[in-house]
Amino acid sequence: MSLEPRPHQAMREGAEFDTIRALMARWGDLAVDIGDDAAVLTPPVGGTRVVSVDACVEDVHFRRAWISAHEVGVRAAVAALSDLAAMGARAESVLIAFVVPDAWREQLSDVADGMGAVIREAGARIVGGNLSRGAVFSITTTVIGRATRVVPRSGAGVGDLVVVTGLLGGPGAAVAAWRAGESPSAWARGRFVAPAPRWAEGDALAAAGATAMIDISDGLAGDARHLAAASGVHLALEVARIPAGPGIAPDVAMQSGEEYELLACIPLEEYKALAPRWGSVSPVPLTVVGVVRAGPEAATSTDGVAPSAFDHFASGNTPR
Amino acid sequence: MSLEPRPHQAMREGAEFDTIRALMARWGDLAVDIGDDAAVLTPPVGGTRVVSVDACVEDVHFRRAWISAHEVGVRAAVAALSDLAAMGARAESVLIAFVVPDAWREQLSDVADGMGAVIREAGARIVGGNLSRGAVFSITTTVIGRATRVVPRSGAGVGDLVVVTGLLGGPGAAVAAWRAGESPSAWARGRFVAPAPRWAEGDALAAAGATAMIDISDGLAGDARHLAAASGVHLALEVARIPAGPGIAPDVAMQSGEEYELLACIPLEEYKALAPRWGSVSPVPLTVVGVVRAGPEAATSTDGVAPSAFDHFASGNTPR
């Protein structure tokens, strides 16, 4: 069995297949092994293979009036790929299932470009997909990746620090502005339309010994509860420590969804080793926002309940 | 790394997660490793891993007035899994992404049961998925499987026989009847609502040396053109040989889609070895319908152009 990807298979004439051919032309060498009943996955070279699926539906996950077709594609790809970053994995292969109303046919190439840019940046390939008509535009993206060390949601231990990447609140602020008929700030809009999967950050946290990790899609408050439930622990978060974007209050930032930043738990000693070199990992900050405690399986957000274990890192926990 | 599947991860409270918990309860031990950002795939024990995705959209792939919610689930699962059978693969893992309008919430358990029955029968497990609101009900199913010998669409050689499993025309006849406001025959309805992935048949054809294979989703005529285009050959089909269901003309049967029967090319000697023991492989017939010739990359359906190479098998090519 060759490790080289198989070439595309020729497809017969027809409008549906013309559309698929147009997408393949758009993607160029980013797409491999398209056109058979199924794609062949090359054997992983070490590590563990992981898989996830995510859907992006018009008028549920975005409104066309808010963002461009290219940005729709970027967001759909990031939302799916971010789940791999949150496992400490890197993306290898992507399958894309489009449901396309007539009104979207002309814009499909722009959507494909947006997805392609993110997938190319991730170092992955598009190996399959599906194209269907339908009344509502949607993109369902399957992502397959590989992890040297899988970081689940369930491994948080009592005493671990709770850390988060980046600055939160942008997507929430952008949606709130659009809903109010206003224009979001450039920073908030950028965070909504062009989020980035946190590959380097997820890798570094996994390698450093993170015990549990999740990407922030429902909002920090909600995803912290996921992680707490999966690990059977209590996440004590300190609102004042939440890293919020410009002009955004921390308690608002922790409700903002579709951030695609990473929330992780990591033992104190491992954090001590990671923090001084974080600046070489990523340009976005890594911030300690709480501590893992025993107790009910729910995270709480409490002002003034400082996680004492990391107080002495407080001044240094945002490298830039 | 253990080969045992990981247990489910607990999820936090909330209506969305209650729905996921209800699905997991419905599926029981059929679902594993649900609730993390991504599912871990156990390493394949030999063979090649293959992956495919397929979408089933209300009012595109089915109408709710025609079939039950359970049958919607069956069809969605079969449509996706059949692509693995057509590669000569067996299913291992399934991810299911639902888009669910409010009107479908009560019926989601029945859909899940239908999918679950097919996935269980296939010997696969549900390892992940996605749940989204949306205006139109859809199911996007990702299937991951393993093949000892992958059979692509592209390997057909000049002189190979063209064979097809089962009796065609049922789904087409059922849809035609419904569209005319009539009731389809029990046989035609059964073929539409409860198709079956041809696992044993795909395995046997792959092991016997089939050179190219595809499942019939667009109709025999259309899928033969796919296979011809992928292989760069001409498929000469003889209409009179098309195995059609009761009361269905062969030329109508070859236009019927969503059959999920297999169309394959196989060298004469390999067919000779397989045909006598086909009855022990499958209860459905294996019928020679044509021959692969050099020439333009399009399949034609021609009366009276008998593929001479298999004429002496004509009397024995439908074992029952």
What features would you describe in this structure?
The structure is a homodimer of 320-residue chains. In chain A, the strands form two sheets. Chain A has a six-stranded mixed sheet, sandwiched between helices. The first copy, chain A, has a four-stranded mixed sheet with strand order 2-5-3-4, with helices on one face. The first copy, chain A, folds into two domains: 133 residues, 2-Layer Sandwich (60s Ribosomal Protein L30, Chain: A), CATH 3.30.1330; 156 residues, Alpha-Beta Complex (Phosphoribosyl-aminoimidazole Synthetase, Chain A, domain 2). The relative contact order of chain A is 0.15. In chain A, helix 3 links the parallel strand 3 and strand 4. By secondary structure, chain A is of the alpha+beta class. The N and C termini of chain A lie far apart (48 Å). The first copy, chain A, is built from ten helices and eleven strands. At the A-B interface, strand 1, strand 2, strand 3, strand 4 and strand 5 of A face strand 1, strand 2, strand 3, strand 4 and strand 5 of B.
Discrete helix count of chain A? 10
Percent of residues in β-strands of chain A: 15-25%
| Principal-axes shape call of chain A | globular
Which oligomeric state applies? Answer: homodimer
* Strand line-up of the largest beta sheet of chain A: 7-9-6-10-8-11
Mean pLDDT of chain A: 88
The helix-and-strand class of chain A reads alpha+beta
Tell me the number of structural domains of chain A. Answer: 2
Sheet with the most strands, sense and barrel status of chain A: 6 strands, mixed
Termini of chain A, distance in Å?
A: 48 Å
Helicity of chain A, as a percent range: 25-40%
Order of helices and strands of chain A: HEEHEHEEEHHHEHEHEHHEE
- The CATH level-2 architecture of the largest domain in chain A is identified as Alpha-Beta Complex
Radius of gyration of chain A: 20 Å
